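[step 3/7] fold_predict: job queued, chain A
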Amino acid sequence: MMHPEILGTICMSFSNIKTLCEQYSQVNYRERLVEVFRNYDRVLVTSSFGTTSVILLHLLHEVKPDHPVHFIDTTYHFSETHQYMQSLIDRWGLNVVHVRPEPIGNARTRRERTWAHHPDRCCQVNKVSPINRLKKQHDVWISGMIGGITEYRKNLPIFKQEGKLMRFYPLIDMTPEDADLYKTIYELPAHPLEGQGYGSIGCTHCTLKGHGRSGRWADKPKTECGLHVFA
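[step 4/7] structure written:
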């Protein structure tokens, strides 16, 4: 186990991402968050409030309970997602900040049903553009994706540098089985739709029932939200 002071020293350097990833892989998920918040002030946290989101939110509640959690409100989320979010706010006092797309563009995607024929464009308008405004104000962006679900995620490192921004995936080496165990151990509440057969939950028009992410964009080659691919 690596001493925290060593982690902090390495975390301050952008020059060796590989070493940074190797060192962080030696400590647990909670310690990873502790060190990042210790070393950076401008930290962006986002959450979809989906089926596995509760893990990062639980860790954040323990490590940095007042830190803002940005929710990209595409205007297309399930009502159950909003209910779930409110239940976690009530439970932990989460500081949730709603981030919405530009109204004219959002209305156009609704009018033209952009998600049906060009889902990437729909994500660009309703997710990527809003998050891009936030990225300019931060140095590190934390997201709670877990690994082993898609080929894209299998290849993601714990840290990934994108220009001046450091992407931080503290749970990316957590398997779906690990995630289920974590939720069981800490008795974390499940998303209401999970019990109805939804393995992954996003916008209503791009989400069907299915194991893992099989219900997301089920009839299209798309497998990932635009936030993680295009943002």
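[step 5/7] annotate
The longest strand covers residues 68-72.
Residues 1-14 have pLDDT under 50 and may be disordered.
exit 0
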